[in-house]
């Protein structure tokens, strides 16, 4: 951060918290330069999200497409750690915001990072295309590098539970529709399909695009950088987290554990033993 | 929770995590009974939020009004503890979801609860009206009770910083507009204005509606119960939290403290002293 | 907080963060007036905890008794939401501090507040004794009030799982031992037993002291105020939370859900249904 | 995790939560094989921490040394994000456990990871010594590699605020004392000093050991693996976090921001501007 080291006192304190997002005086709130009372009622919630993150307003269609991606990943049920934790927390005597915090807090590299990884992967291919390579060659080169370096699934493909994740083909079709109307270029949709095809050639079977890959396509089309997609996923999943926390709060449980109350857990450690005699015994 | 105590084994385990929100099988995801691939592209993000929380789809206009309320409270700048914490956390080497969690976690009774309190207050007046009392009388009776029991501001009125919060009159005007089109009854807008007027009569000066009161009006018009408004505020403020966390991550700071790096804090405790001699010295 | 409103600039900023706990200059750290290098190696960890919370050093025996109470409540297994959440979080790709945070965050009024409630209850009886009432009468009066106002268990008594919690009688015996040596008065141990006896007279069966009641006895003997006992419980349970998070990290799981991976959850909501036709269809 | 896939029903559910830490039945709690009522009053709090994390009891002297390291890092004042966040959170209307959670949550790679990095660095040198290299050569080789790969400070050395961190030399002296009594080998103390000397030779000035380096020495002497040192730091710093949260709760502030209430923040973004005309205007 470029700070003016010559400032002192209150000006220096206020400079410490510089931001380009919000300007405020008594009776005045501006977001990214727009008066809040002008924004209210004029821009949709996804457009407000865009404005806050990007600094400029999207077109109405761009905001619609962002909203579609945000809507797609709101919930994947209580076997997901985030959702289970929201429900458990809600029975422990904390506010609904704290239950949501404990849940959001686990959307880490593994639980929340797949979209970011997928978009970075697709972005590498886009960069190769910018440098003059054809789509298929760029995808093949990136896959070669992936299989040389890593094991397991290519980012954005495959699902341990769904043979085909029903969200992915629908999101891709929607993206194609928006591309057809000129809202987005459609390039990341092409890339995702080229990756899918390249994997199928290598593996001899199709490993279909999953929700993380499909939302990465949309976020890429809309110009979001990969690390922001984790944040967008947090906004999206927070909806399911809130819904489950709320549903749980309407039931009467206390200190809900992971297993039915009358069950325990398996113990696999040291058998019963006595404390060693104290040194002075 | 009504549990069937006769179930055992896997069925009992699965019953332990019963929900009415999401149904899943391999290749199938349904939210509130709707196939996810049907929802995607057909419902807006605010409509999805509504569906998840309420169990039924809203009308398009209801969803629009919900989105307007969600958009209005996204940010109030880094003097708000939630926003400051998001920025500080982001410099400590954690993921953006964890920075958001630390921030969301402080939207408690004081920082995040004012809307809930305002809606409960307005709801008491609505209940009195349902029982046959006229608006002004119902508001006056509730205010009498408030001033007999409590000190300080009536929930939903007044702001320590803004003489008039620019969001509140705009949100009220928007609500009136939606009421004029028959989307909502307009009753909570009436109640809020009656409360404002009643306070002015008592205090001799106007204590205007604030953002919490104004969003409480909308959430009340739309039929949300008071405790859910805290959850909705979390969804809304999470946008600002993400925007500030993201902006902070683009700068190079490490372990950002509350004051400029070269400042300290005032110490007001015991002066320097020696440890007491050990008992065996 | 008494702030000197005449201060300005840096002095005002530093005053904003006034504390009596720690004084620092380059090369100097003092806790409660003691130089850190004097404290290191001279005071035990429980004594340091006491110093930080109370402002003065305890005797060695007081610190020992505090350490005993802290040791007793470190773990109650993965059916406790806090422990389960620590383990689940650890499989989601976050740091061990974040896994601990999600877990500590659920030690709320229900999961972490029983000790505070028990000490407040015992403290009411102690206050009545200070006002001249005999132990048994003071306990009976408090219990009368409890049963007139509330349902369920008296704070500090009873356990849904353990007929007798093995920690409680042992902690009480230890307290008696310290009281015999004059370290503590033994008064809260008397009060807890009087409460136990009073409940037995009313109910016709013994509802024995639990871990929360037993640690409340010790914290009361040592002079901690009730709200601080929740904080002490956090320090204690953090040990078990860390142990389980660490054990989990040594296994290879990803996104550990509450139920075995091949299980699901029961769905009890709306059956499959079609989206309503859009208004313009 | 090796799971017996042939188990079904309740046994499978209980196996899903297998642990070697705690065994429980009604009326029975065993930690690492020891009955809890045997442990209570017989082992110190640091010994309990060791038992939970390592699976075996330490000697009394090992526990003492662990307690010394835990005591040294409890607080570094409210300019540390963790401490500031605890204080801010406490004014927002959440429980003390939630204030602690928001604070612990920021002890990430940057704010809480330096000890882990230092111990890993020292451990590389120890491994080279195990492979037959002399101390000085092993340290020099590791430093060569560090300066070839990275910029900035060698892990465990240097402090932005303290010319010499007063905790570090004292902790090193204590370690030497324990080594002299045969409690620990003293090898990590040697390594730390060799690293310090090696850096001084390269830089021409001494960059002294800091608190992270000094506690890493002790944790290394005691045989803790690097990733666990972050967890130990969380236990340690939780004490200061609790002390500051508690002190803050005794004052009457609400929604404490980072700067004095009457200050704001600097705005560096877009100047005021009007919304673009809607497409249908």
From TrEMBL, chains A, B, C, D:
EC number: 2.3.3.16
Any single GO BP term: carbohydrate metabolic process
Xref: SUPFAM superfamilies: Citrate synthase
Pfam families per UniProt: Citrate_synt (PF00285)
One GO MF term attached to the UniProt entry: citrate synthase activity
CDD domains for the chain: CCL_ACL-C
PANTHER family recorded: CITRATE SYNTHASE (PTHR11739), CITRATE SYNTHASE, PEROXISOMAL (PTHR11739:SF4)
Family matches, as InterPro entries: Citrate_synth-like_lrg_a-sub (IPR016142), Citrate_synth-like_sm_a-sub (IPR016143), Citrate_synthase (IPR002020), Citrate_synthase_sf (IPR036969)
Keyword Repressor: no
Pathway membership, UniProt: Carbohydrate metabolism; tricarboxylic acid cycle; isocitrate from oxaloacetate: step 1/2
Protein name: citrate synthase (unknown stereospecificity)
Enzyme class: transferase
Family: Belongs to the citrate synthase family.
GO cellular component: cytosol
Listed NCBIfam families: PRK06224.1-1
Keyword annotations from UniProtKB, A to Z: Lyase, Transferase
Signal peptide start-end: none
